[in-house]
Amino acid sequence: MSKKIIRRESIIQAAIEVFSKKDFKSASISEIAEKAGVADGTIYQYFRNKEDLFFSIPIEKTNEFRSQLELHLEGISGALNKIRKFVWYFLYFFKTNPGYGRILMLEMRVSRSFVKTETYGFLKQSVGQVLDVIIEGQKEGVIRRDTDIYILRHLVLGTLEHMVSRWLLKGGKYDLLERHQEVSRIIIDGLKAA
Amino acid sequence: MSKKIIRRESIIQAAIEVFSKKDFKSASISEIAEKAGVADGTIYQYFRNKEDLFFSIPIEKTNEFRSQLELHLEGISGALNKIRKFVWYFLYFFKTNPGYGRILMLEMRVSRSFVKTETYGFLKQSVGQVLDVIIEGQKEGVIRRDTDIYILRHLVLGTLEHMVSRWLLKGGKYDLLERHQEVSRIIIDGLKAA
Amino acid sequence: MSKKIIRRESIIQAAIEVFSKKDFKSASISEIAEKAGVADGTIYQYFRNKEDLFFSIPIEKTNEFRSQLELHLEGISGALNKIRKFVWYFLYFFKTNPGYGRILMLEMRVSRSFVKTETYGFLKQSVGQVLDVIIEGQKEGVIRRDTDIYILRHLVLGTLEHMVSRWLLKGGKYDLLERHQEVSRIIIDGLKAA
Amino acid sequence: MSKKIIRRESIIQAAIEVFSKKDFKSASISEIAEKAGVADGTIYQYFRNKEDLFFSIPIEKTNEFRSQLELHLEGISGALNKIRKFVWYFLYFFKTNPGYGRILMLEMRVSRSFVKTETYGFLKQSVGQVLDVIIEGQKEGVIRRDTDIYILRHLVLGTLEHMVSRWLLKGGKYDLLERHQEVSRIIIDGLKAA
DNA sequence: CATGAATGAGGTTTCATTCAT
DNA sequence: AATGAATGAAACCTCATTCAT
What top-level class would CATH report for the domain A1-47? Predict the structure, then answer.
């Protein structure tokens, strides 16, 4: 039983490696199969088709992101402190998962078909945590109430995703985490109540 | 002679239409040729290959963006006022050019090969104007000096691009410009000197 | 021991259901296995391969055809009366076994490999009864002697098989038996001695 | 212009050769392309897909059948004489076109999807000539009126198709035409008015 | 310059069959 | 005897690009 889970896992791992180097169309099932150490046909025992495999990647990774994030937020009080931690964790996560980053940021987040997927809903829910913290901050009186919360979220996620995307496009040459404090500072200044 | 230019233009127009509906691989030269009213082979008289045609799209559009932006900035003094105008114009431009927006934001900006293109350099230069304004603001003393200017640019472009991307992915259903003042406000609060 | 026979039987039944809806290549072992309530691999305990299973279908059905036909012919005297009964029974049998009819008439009878099978010999022997009746009729002096008996058989079986095939292809919408007397009449007029 | 027609023709010829040896699924586009002396992709310039190519075969051949038949019937008067000629011509045509015979009799006439095709309607119309002759014979008073004309057609076509099918399945070893007079005789005796 | 017919490489997916449990 | 996970071969079709007219 766990054999199936392990094999499924190894196929997803291989898929991350391959899809992070090539786009969806260019990546081949054969290459993934070979990397996973299984026959081509075996992949179709675990996933309906190539797209299903592709869209299965974020589900696991999002789970990881979320559960780790929760651990990191634990014991932190104050919405602004949580934002600081979120900024750090967001950059940390993609610094340590650049392959997945390339898939998520450069392929998936931008695909028309992805938006229709359940996975997309799942992912959205996950970054939805940011909204909760923003609302929390408004209640605390530390985050501005004169601006739509979705606009505030654009500020947070836009800045961070832009940083990660550009970093990935440059080939991950510099340290993504280096300036996380500066980033937190300007984001928070944008969010803060007057 | 100008016949050539007109024909080239009509091919690019057709390409924008097609590429804005389908991704690079799915879009076909035949469809573009048909829309442009030329034979398939003719396209290869004007562009080296499909990629060359694809990457030729932003050059014109970027010129348009830049020259119009300059007009709009004319007569405006003060870096922060310029930022406000830039925010407005950025949203306005993509509101009125959604097809090109889809190509630039959802396909090109995210493509590995694009980064190596001259077009990329050209485009970067174009949004580089933001950097100039930031520096101008620092000199005026209205924009913070405690933060790397590239990080500040991530804040501006990240927020805006995030807004436009999400808007495009949602199918452009709501009004992108509606909240431009709120956006300006929070971005500027993030940039402002203490 | 009889458990094996029952299981074999249920696999054949499932095969009839599946093969009557899909042609040989389109029908899948998995679907048959599922319908029979066994694992894919189990089928290979009872049949060498897919073709073996396919060609095993007519053996049983032919036995049924033959034994029932004998009952129906019992007590009938005169070759022409036997022909009339045969015509009726042939149409009756396929009217009540359309699934098997589709397999036999539209798939098997027409397959190159089937001709080489033992099953084919068995089936031929079975319709060979027609030949016996023809010869009987010639001895009685009621069936013409100026024509090769194999040609006469073409007349009988050709007409009947054509009727059944077209009926099956039309989806079995009308009553196959309705005109059996007219059919008998013209076939017999073709066979009759001057 | 005629170049396209010639090439189309040569692809159909190659298709007849290949499809007459292998069934639809086993036959490969590559083999047909090679035999036709064109690239695989070229076939798709002339036919939408494999099925379209397959079903295009009878259209030409049916035209040939029909026009030749008309020539042969010319100058023949009397429905029964026409039936005799038709019997001869039917056997003659398949004797001289065994490859096409295998395709039509053993593959196509028996395929569920074929029945839905335009080609099927076209083919039906073609053998519909038999019906006309039958009606003509009834008017002349030489063909029985006590039997449904479609049943009479089953007698004619069923006998002939059965002969051809069996002959093809046996590998075309004996002479199909040898006994055409006997065949005519028994068919006509079945059709004749009392 | 324009055309458009021809090319041919390349990859996903299915499914009969096997064999370790 | 039964299972069912794993295998891997095999082929249709698309489409960017070329080149003779």
Answer: mainly alpha
